[in-house]
Amino acid sequence: MRTVVFDLDGTLADTSADLIAAANACFRGLGHGDVLDPVQDALIAFQGGRAMLTAGLARLGQQDPELVAAQYPVLLAAYAEGIDTHTRLYPGAAAAVEALRAAGFATAICTNKPEALAEMLVQRLGIRGLFGSLIGADTLPTRKPDPAPYVAAVEQAGGVVRRSMLIGDTETDRKTAAAVGVPCVLVSFGPEGSDVARLAPEALLHRFADLPGLAAQMLS
Protein backbone atom coordinates (compact mmCIF):
# COMPACT_ATOMS: atom_id res chain seq x y z
CA MET A 1 0.00 0.00 0.00
CA ARG A 2 1.20 3.50 -0.83
CA THR A 3 1.96 5.41 2.38
CA VAL A 4 2.46 9.06 3.25
CA VAL A 5 4.38 9.66 6.48
CA PHE A 6 4.12 13.04 8.20
CA ASP A 7 6.30 14.85 10.66
CA LEU A 8 4.20 16.56 13.34
CA ASP A 9 5.68 19.82 14.66
CA GLY A 10 6.07 22.41 11.93
CA THR A 11 4.48 20.11 9.34
CA LEU A 12 0.98 19.18 10.44
CA ALA A 13 0.70 21.74 13.23
CA ASP A 14 2.31 24.96 14.40
CA THR A 15 3.32 24.06 17.94
CA SER A 16 5.95 26.77 18.40
CA ALA A 17 4.09 29.06 20.81
CA ASP A 18 3.29 26.27 23.26
CA LEU A 19 6.85 24.94 23.08
CA ILE A 20 8.29 28.39 23.75
CA ALA A 21 5.86 28.86 26.66
CA ALA A 22 7.12 25.64 28.24
CA ALA A 23 10.74 26.76 27.93
CA ASN A 24 9.93 30.17 29.38
CA ALA A 25 8.26 28.45 32.33
CA CYS A 26 11.64 26.88 33.07
CA PHE A 27 13.43 30.22 32.85
CA ARG A 28 10.91 31.84 35.15
CA GLY A 29 11.40 29.00 37.60
CA LEU A 30 15.12 29.73 37.54
CA GLY A 31 14.46 33.34 38.48
CA HIS A 32 14.52 34.87 35.02
CA GLY A 33 11.79 36.34 32.87
CA ASP A 34 10.57 35.06 29.51
CA VAL A 35 13.84 34.64 27.66
CA LEU A 36 12.49 33.30 24.35
CA ASP A 37 10.04 35.03 22.02
CA PRO A 38 7.19 32.93 20.58
CA VAL A 39 7.50 34.56 17.16
CA GLN A 40 11.17 35.38 16.73
CA ASP A 41 12.33 32.08 18.22
CA ALA A 42 9.85 29.76 16.51
CA LEU A 43 12.61 28.04 14.54
CA ILE A 44 14.47 27.24 17.76
CA ALA A 45 11.29 25.71 19.17
CA PHE A 46 11.14 23.16 16.36
CA GLN A 47 14.68 22.04 17.18
CA GLY A 48 13.45 20.58 20.46
CA GLY A 49 13.31 21.21 24.17
CA ARG A 50 17.02 20.93 24.82
CA ALA A 51 17.76 23.36 22.00
CA MET A 52 15.37 25.91 23.49
CA LEU A 53 16.93 25.58 26.94
CA THR A 54 20.44 25.82 25.54
CA ALA A 55 19.60 28.90 23.47
CA GLY A 56 17.87 30.63 26.35
CA LEU A 57 20.67 29.96 28.79
CA ALA A 58 23.19 31.22 26.23
CA ARG A 59 21.33 34.54 26.14
CA LEU A 60 21.72 34.65 29.88
CA GLY A 61 25.45 34.10 29.51
CA GLN A 62 25.32 30.51 30.72
CA GLN A 63 26.61 27.34 29.12
CA ASP A 64 25.54 24.55 31.45
CA PRO A 65 24.68 21.16 29.91
CA GLU A 66 23.88 19.77 33.36
CA LEU A 67 21.31 22.50 33.95
CA VAL A 68 19.79 21.79 30.53
CA ALA A 69 19.51 18.12 31.44
CA ALA A 70 17.97 18.95 34.81
CA GLN A 71 15.42 21.36 33.32
CA TYR A 72 14.38 19.15 30.41
CA PRO A 73 11.88 17.08 32.48
CA VAL A 74 10.53 20.33 33.91
CA LEU A 75 10.01 21.62 30.39
CA LEU A 76 8.20 18.44 29.33
CA ALA A 77 5.87 18.68 32.32
CA ALA A 78 5.10 22.33 31.58
CA TYR A 79 4.50 21.53 27.94
CA ALA A 80 2.11 18.70 28.77
CA GLU A 81 0.01 21.10 30.85
CA GLY A 82 -0.43 23.58 28.00
CA ILE A 83 0.14 21.38 24.97
CA ASP A 84 -2.76 22.72 22.91
CA THR A 85 -3.19 26.23 24.28
CA HIS A 86 -1.99 27.92 21.10
CA THR A 87 -1.22 24.99 18.79
CA ARG A 88 -3.25 24.80 15.61
CA LEU A 89 -3.23 22.55 12.57
CA TYR A 90 -1.96 24.22 9.42
CA PRO A 91 -4.84 25.13 7.06
CA GLY A 92 -6.11 22.15 5.11
CA ALA A 93 -3.99 19.57 6.95
CA ALA A 94 -6.82 17.35 8.17
CA ALA A 95 -8.71 17.57 4.87
CA ALA A 96 -5.59 16.55 2.94
CA VAL A 97 -5.01 13.50 5.12
CA GLU A 98 -8.66 12.52 4.77
CA ALA A 99 -8.38 12.84 0.98
CA LEU A 100 -5.27 10.66 0.93
CA ARG A 101 -7.01 7.95 2.91
CA ALA A 102 -10.07 8.14 0.67
CA ALA A 103 -7.75 7.62 -2.31
CA GLY A 104 -6.35 4.44 -0.78
CA PHE A 105 -3.17 5.73 0.84
CA ALA A 106 -2.04 4.66 4.31
CA THR A 107 -0.99 7.56 6.53
CA ALA A 108 1.40 7.70 9.49
CA ILE A 109 3.21 10.10 11.80
CA CYS A 110 6.94 9.92 12.52
CA THR A 111 8.04 12.64 14.93
CA ASN A 112 10.93 13.47 17.24
CA LYS A 113 8.45 14.59 19.89
CA PRO A 114 8.23 12.06 22.77
CA GLU A 115 5.55 9.52 21.91
CA ALA A 116 3.27 10.20 24.88
CA LEU A 117 3.22 13.93 24.15
CA ALA A 118 2.67 13.33 20.44
CA GLU A 119 -0.24 11.02 21.19
CA MET A 120 -1.72 13.56 23.60
CA LEU A 121 -1.44 16.35 21.06
CA VAL A 122 -2.99 14.55 18.09
CA GLN A 123 -5.82 13.36 20.33
CA ARG A 124 -6.46 16.93 21.47
CA LEU A 125 -6.36 18.15 17.88
CA GLY A 126 -8.89 15.47 16.92
CA ILE A 127 -6.76 13.83 14.23
CA ARG A 128 -5.45 10.62 15.81
CA GLY A 129 -7.94 8.51 13.88
CA LEU A 130 -6.54 9.79 10.59
CA PHE A 131 -3.23 7.97 11.05
CA GLY A 132 -2.55 4.25 11.06
CA SER A 133 0.54 4.62 13.25
CA LEU A 134 2.48 7.11 15.33
CA ILE A 135 6.18 6.72 16.10
CA GLY A 136 7.76 9.18 18.51
CA ALA A 137 11.28 10.04 19.58
CA ASP A 138 11.33 7.39 22.29
CA THR A 139 9.22 4.66 20.66
CA LEU A 140 12.38 2.93 19.44
CA PRO A 141 16.00 3.11 20.63
CA THR A 142 16.77 5.53 17.77
CA ARG A 143 15.06 8.61 16.38
CA LYS A 144 15.06 10.49 13.07
CA PRO A 145 17.20 10.81 10.97
CA ASP A 146 17.89 7.14 11.72
CA PRO A 147 15.70 5.22 9.26
CA ALA A 148 14.26 2.76 11.81
CA PRO A 149 11.44 5.01 13.14
CA TYR A 150 10.31 5.84 9.62
CA VAL A 151 10.31 2.19 8.57
CA ALA A 152 8.31 1.29 11.68
CA ALA A 153 5.79 4.05 10.98
CA VAL A 154 5.19 2.75 7.45
CA GLU A 155 4.98 -0.90 8.39
CA GLN A 156 2.70 -0.33 11.39
CA ALA A 157 0.35 1.63 9.13
CA GLY A 158 0.18 -1.36 6.78
CA GLY A 159 2.31 0.19 4.07
CA VAL A 160 5.38 -0.76 2.06
CA VAL A 161 8.52 1.35 2.51
CA ARG A 162 9.49 1.40 -1.16
CA ARG A 163 6.06 2.89 -1.96
CA SER A 164 6.15 5.61 0.67
CA MET A 165 7.14 9.27 1.03
CA LEU A 166 7.88 11.68 3.87
CA ILE A 167 6.28 15.09 4.42
CA GLY A 168 8.39 17.26 6.72
CA ASP A 169 9.83 20.69 7.37
CA THR A 170 13.45 20.35 8.49
CA GLU A 171 16.87 19.07 7.55
CA THR A 172 16.23 16.13 9.87
CA ASP A 173 13.28 15.08 7.72
CA ARG A 174 15.35 15.49 4.56
CA LYS A 175 18.12 13.31 6.01
CA THR A 176 15.60 10.72 7.17
CA ALA A 177 14.12 10.33 3.71
CA ALA A 178 17.59 10.10 2.19
CA ALA A 179 18.60 7.43 4.70
CA VAL A 180 15.53 5.35 3.84
CA GLY A 181 15.74 6.06 0.12
CA VAL A 182 12.26 7.55 -0.32
CA PRO A 183 11.02 10.90 -1.69
CA CYS A 184 10.90 13.88 0.65
CA VAL A 185 8.45 16.75 0.39
CA LEU A 186 9.14 19.78 2.59
CA VAL A 187 6.45 22.31 3.48
CA SER A 188 7.14 25.95 2.67
CA PHE A 189 4.69 27.20 5.32
CA GLY A 190 6.66 25.76 8.25
CA PRO A 191 9.27 27.44 10.47
CA GLU A 192 11.83 28.01 7.71
CA GLY A 193 9.36 29.07 5.04
CA SER A 194 10.67 28.91 1.49
CA ASP A 195 14.24 28.62 2.78
CA VAL A 196 13.72 24.84 3.00
CA ALA A 197 14.33 24.78 -0.75
CA ARG A 198 18.05 24.88 0.09
CA LEU A 199 17.71 21.26 1.27
CA ALA A 200 16.83 20.16 -2.27
CA PRO A 201 13.79 17.98 -1.48
CA GLU A 202 12.04 16.11 -4.26
CA ALA A 203 9.24 18.69 -3.99
CA LEU A 204 7.99 21.63 -1.97
CA LEU A 205 4.45 21.79 -0.61
CA HIS A 206 3.02 25.30 -0.51
CA ARG A 207 -0.49 24.35 0.61
CA PHE A 208 -2.05 21.13 1.85
CA ALA A 209 -4.73 21.20 -0.85
CA ASP A 210 -2.02 20.21 -3.34
CA LEU A 211 -0.84 17.15 -1.39
CA PRO A 212 -3.26 14.44 -2.63
CA GLY A 213 -2.38 15.15 -6.25
CA LEU A 214 1.33 15.42 -5.50
CA ALA A 215 1.35 12.12 -3.60
CA ALA A 216 -0.49 10.36 -6.42
CA GLN A 217 2.09 11.66 -8.88
CA MET A 218 5.15 10.82 -6.79
CA LEU A 219 3.97 7.34 -5.79
CA SER A 220 2.37 6.37 -9.10
TrEMBL record:
Cellular component, GO, one term: cytosol
Keywords recorded for this protein, A-Z: Hydrolase
Transmembrane parts of this sequence: none
Pathway(s) annotated for this protein in UniProt: Organic acid metabolism; glycolate biosynthesis; glycolate from 2-phosphoglycolate: step 1/1
Residue ranges the record marks as coiled coil: none
GO molecular function: phosphoglycolate phosphatase activity
One GO BP annotation of this record: DNA repair
Catalytic activity of the protein: 2-phosphoglycolate + H2O = glycolate + phosphate
EC number: 3.1.3.18
Domain of life: Bacteria
Keyword Manganese annotated: no
InterPro entries assigned to the protein according to its UniProt record, in alphabetical order: HAD-like_hydrolase_sf, HAD-like_sf, HAD-SF_hydro_IA, HAD_sf, PGP-like_dom2
UniProt cross-references to NCBIfam families, sorted A to Z: HAD-SF-IA-v1
Family: Belongs to the HAD-like hydrolase superfamily. CbbY/CbbZ/Gph/YieH family.
Name used for this protein in its record: phosphoglycolate phosphatase
